[in-house]
Amino acid sequence: MNIDLVFESDRLKFKIWKENDIGNAKKLWGDTEVTKYIGGPFDEKKIENRLRIEIDNNANFCIQYWKLYLKTNEEFIGCCGFRPYKNENKALEMGFHLCKKYWGKGYATEAGKASLKYGFEELHLKKIYAGHNPNNDQSKKVLIKLGFNYIRDEYYGPTGLNHPIYEILYDNYIHL
Q1: C-alpha to C-alpha distance for 115 and 137, rounded to whole angstroms
Q2: Paired residues of 94 in beta bridges
Q3: pLDDT tens for residues 1-56?
Q4: Mind giving me the DSSP string for 17-79?
Q5: DSSP character for 122?
Q6: Is 25 exposed, middle or buried (0-12, 13-18, 19+ CB in 10 A)?
Q7: Which of 29, 30, 80, 159 could be a cystine partner for 96, CB 3.0 to 4.6 Å?
Q8: pLDDT > 70 fraction of the chain, expressed in percent and rounded
Q9: Which of 57, 66, 37, 20 minimizes the C-alpha distance to 142?
């Protein structure tokens, strides 16, 4: 039994970030292509802070942007999951970051579907938020494919831009 495993999808395993995961954190958030839409580039301190945020979210809320591994070979490919949504009490925001090598292979959509299922069926959420950099058309496409609906733009400090914000309600999710 793997105590770090949170849940799985067809091709992916979702695992908990730990203190000793700095190598995977650097592999993901040290890539300027990965972080260009989320406030990058990240230096070593920002990468360590990002890892700390995930560890703290797990300790405080039992959620995080969980590490993603391929089931076939246990290769680390990125992260997907939840963080507290700042503008509403007891609400969560879903997000995903993938290593560039895994872009365009359907992993973000698969990870998003599995995270939504976990959020609605295990965490019993009534709605989930998501956002993306206004220049990131691929993330927008994934969110629309997952059933999210645009609700407003919101300022995101790390990029200095207004990011489109979306929500998906449990009632809409069960009809997907």
Answers
A1: 21
A2: 82, 130
A3: 567 999 999 999 999 999 999 999 999 999 999 999 999 999 999 999 999 999 99
A4: --GGGHHHHHHHHT-HHHHTTTT----HHHHHHHHHHHHHHHHHHS--EEEEEETTT--EEEE
A5: I
A6: buried
A7: 80
A8: 96
A9: 37
Measured CA to CA, the distance from residue 138 to residue 103 in angstroms comes to: 9
The total number of residues written for the chain in this structure: 176
Place of tokens 């000793």: 20
- Judging by DSSP bridges, how do beta strands 161-169 and 149-156 pair with one another? antiparallel
Amino acid occupying residue 3? I
Q: Write out pLDDT tens, residues 36-49.
A: 999 999 999 999 99
Per-residue tokens: 7: 């849940």
